[in-house]
């Protein structure tokens, strides 16, 4: 059974940093691209960042470019999102998602990030 | 960047009605288009990929069509369990992917 479990969310002050993690199991992690998607309270889905199976191709939404860094450790079956210079508008539920040749066939339950003073 | 525009943003229909949601890309994306369903308080679920291919386990009342810039998601006979927000997503330029703004479907 595919499982994606996010962690690392919490309450953080504007300008500070946070690192999210996603632990994957039930599939061959290093065969698939992985992504982070967020959803602000009451809002739609926003793609945040994605990384190819070998970290050779990485992309970011314009809203987080230069502040967020995606990475993965295939030996640990884990995906990460380093978030720096956090802003109030980064407040959201952050999902980890597995990509099957593009679309996302599995999603985690999400970890909530709240940026507030 | 390619923008994805969904319409309508919300709709209300009766059980058994045929429901159509549209998604328009600002540039051609061939058939690199997926549809997701997100029920209230739940994780998004992949319904359709490659514009018209039904994900395993998805009821056959759901269908997708289109290519290039214009796409549609159709629910042939709306059921109470279909109350959800539906999102389109382009994936022609991985790893950079974009969602549409969503369409909220309610029962009249």
SSE layout and pairing:
The complex is a heterodimer of chains A (117) and B (108).
Chain A: E1 3-7, E2 10-12, E3 18-25, E4 34-39, E5 45-51, E6 58-60, E7 68-73, E8 78-83, E9 92-99, E10 104-107, E11 111-115
Parallel strand pairs in A: 2-11
Antiparallel strand pairs in A: 1-3, 3-8, 4-5, 4-9, 5-6, 7-8, 9-10, 9-11
Chain B: E1 4-7, E2 10-13, E3 19-25, E4 33-38, E5 45-49, E6 53-54, E7 62-67, E8 70-75, E9 84-90, E10 98-99, E11 103-107
3D structure, described in words:
- The complex is a heterodimer of chains A (117) and B (108).
- Helix content of chain A is 0%, strand content 52%.
- Chain A has strands at residues 3-7, 10-12, 18-25, 34-39, 45-51, 58-60, 68-73, 78-83, 92-99, 104-107, 111-115.
- In chain A, strands 2, 4, 5, 6, 9, 10 and 11 form a 7-stranded mixed β-sheet that branches.
- The N and C termini of chain A lie far apart (40 Å).
- By secondary structure, chain B is mostly beta strands.
- Chain B contains no helices and 11 strands.
- In chain B, the strands form 2 sheets. In chain B, strands 2, 4, 5, 6, 9, 10 and 11 form a 7-stranded mixed β-sheet that branches. A 4-stranded antiparallel β-sheet of chain B has the order 1-3-8-7, with no helix packed on it.
- The A-B interface holds A 33, 35, 37, 44-47, 49-52, 57-62, 95, 99, 102-105, 107-110 and B 1, 32, 34, 36, 38, 43-46, 49, 55, 85, 87, 89, 91, 94-102.
The averaged pLDDT of chain B comes out at: 96
> N- to C-terminal separation of chain B?
37 Å
Q: How many individual helices of chain A?
A: 0
Number of beta-strand segments of chain A: 11
Record field, number of beta strands of chain B: 11
Count of DSSP-assigned helices of chain B: 0
Low-confidence stretches of chain B: none
Q: What fraction, in percent, of the residue positions of chain B are helical?
A: under 10%
Question: What sort of overall outline of chain B do the alpha carbons produce when their principal axes are compared?
Answer: globular
> End-to-end distance of chain A, in Å?
40 Å
SSE string of chain B, helix = H, strand = E?
A: EEEEEEEEEEE
Q: N-to-C SSE series of chain A? A: EEEEEEEEEEE
Q: Report the major sheet of chain A.
A: 7 strands, mixed
Q: What percentage of amino acids of chain A are in beta strands? A: over 45%
Query: How helix-rich are the residues of chain A, as a percent range?
Result: under 10%
Q: How much beta of chain B, percentage-wise?
A: over 45%
């Amino acid at each position: 059974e595919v499982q994606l479990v996010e962690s690392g969310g919490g309450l953080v002050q504007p300008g500070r940093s946070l690192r999210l993690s996603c632990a994957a199991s039930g599939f061959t992690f290093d065969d698939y691209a992985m992504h982070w998607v967020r959803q602000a309270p009451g809002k739609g889905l926003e793609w945040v960042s994605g990384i190819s199976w070998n970290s050779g191709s990485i992309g970011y939404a314009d809203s987080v470019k230069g502040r967020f860094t995606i990475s993965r450790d295939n030996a640990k079956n884990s995906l990460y999102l380093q978030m720096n210079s956090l802003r109030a508008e980064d407040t959201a539920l952050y999902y980890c998602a597995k990509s099957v040749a593009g679309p996302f066939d599995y999603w985690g339950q999400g970890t909530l990030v709240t940026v507030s003073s | 960047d390619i923008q994805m525009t969904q319409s309508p943003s919300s709709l209300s229909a009766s059980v058994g009605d045929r429901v159509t949601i549209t998604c328009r890309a600002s540039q051609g994306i061939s058939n690199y288009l997926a549809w997701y369903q997100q029920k209230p308080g739940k994780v998004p679920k992949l319904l359709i990929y490659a514009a018209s291919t039904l994900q395993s386990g998805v009821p056959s009342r759901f269908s997708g069509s289109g290519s290039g810039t214009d796409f549609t998601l159709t629910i042939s006979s709306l059921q109470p369990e279909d109350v959800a927000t539906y999102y389109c997503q382009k994936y022609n330029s991985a790893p950079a992917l974009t969602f549409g703004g969503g369409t909220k479907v309610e029962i009249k």
